[in-house]
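ok so for the tutorial part 2 we go from a plain amino acid sequence to predicted structure tokens. step 1 is just haveing the sequence, like this:
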Amino acid sequence: MLRIVVLVAVVAGVLIGGRAWLRSQDYLDFGNSARVPAPSHEETVDTPDGPRKVAVVPYRDGAQAVYGLAIHNSGPLSVKVTEVAKPEAPDASLSMFRPVAVRMANREGPETHTTMPFKPFTLKKDHQRYVEVVGRLGDCEHYGPGSSEVLASQPVKFKVLGQTLTNDVELPTRIEIRYTSCPR
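step 2 — the prediction. this is what the tokens look like for a chain of 184 residues:
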């Protein structure tokens, strides 16, 4: 009876330790290509971490804005990317940038030439794939003149060994949406 109790305790310890190890790993980070919305202009701003490049996007009510990034798997295991940005219905948020679609490169790698609608994909260790987030600008009535919204990272949801996790992939250039007045 003692052997069974010890065996159960060992198996439980291995499972708990394995799950903790799995969750403690850094899996996804920025690959080697990105796209900032057009039109935008680059500025350097001071942040608590020092100077950083910012792509400043002028606010135009109802305009579409698209940014992209290559997602790289730097973790020890293959992962299945299941969500990059969840499209939001109108009036679902009060953000100036509301995701309406996600696109991805039609094959693995950092290329940006051909995209298709997002569907879950697997990234092996040290592989990457380019994705784009398409958004609509709106809801400026909730902000004061001179306000801005900053996009500094992209949450990416993925599965690894049956566990669903999320990593925030830092954008190489922050995106700042600025407006001076609201047309409403």
